[in-house]
Every structure is written in structure tokens, then in C-alpha cells.
Amino acid sequence: xxTSLDPTWLVACTLASYYITYVVVFSDxxxxxxxxxxxxxFLMALLSCPHCFSMWAAAGVLAAYWFAGEITSIAWVLxxxxxxxxxxxxxxxxx
Length: 95
Known about the structure:
Number of helices: 5
Helix content: over 70%
Mean pLDDT: 81
Largest sheet: none
Low-confidence stretches: none
Order of helices and strands: HHHHH
């Protein structure tokens, strides 16, 4: 099992974490979930704070990367999310 993180994967995992955080905290598609959980103060604080949620997103992404040594299809999911995250960063830079 590969437990090291080379620079390319570090960037990919960072972008994947960024994009997951962006979708959960800011996107309209996730608004119904945020509204549903608005009565639970801890969860609402977590879902409305990108810095708070990104720690959990990063943990999930890195756990998926770690398991990718055993399940290679997870690595491609991370790459797809990273590419989407990179696209989102480019859109943000454009604005």
C-alpha cells in the first residue's frame, strides 16, 4: 500500500478538497441539505464555514487517497474531483 504523497497527488488532493468544500458550503445544489440541518447548531456551523468544513473534506480526500493503494478506481474519482476543483479555481480567478 502506498502511503506517501508525491507533489502531483498533493495538488490533486488539495483541489479535490477545495471543490468538495465549495460544493457543500456555497453551491445551490447543496442548499436543501444545509436548510435541513439548520436546526443543529454544530452541523450548521460546519456547513457554513469553508475553513471548518475543509478540514473534514481534506480528511476524507486523504483517506480515499490512502485506500486508493488498494482500490485504484478511487484514485480516478479523486482526479475527476481535482479537475473540477481546478476548473472552479480558474473561474474564481476570472471574476
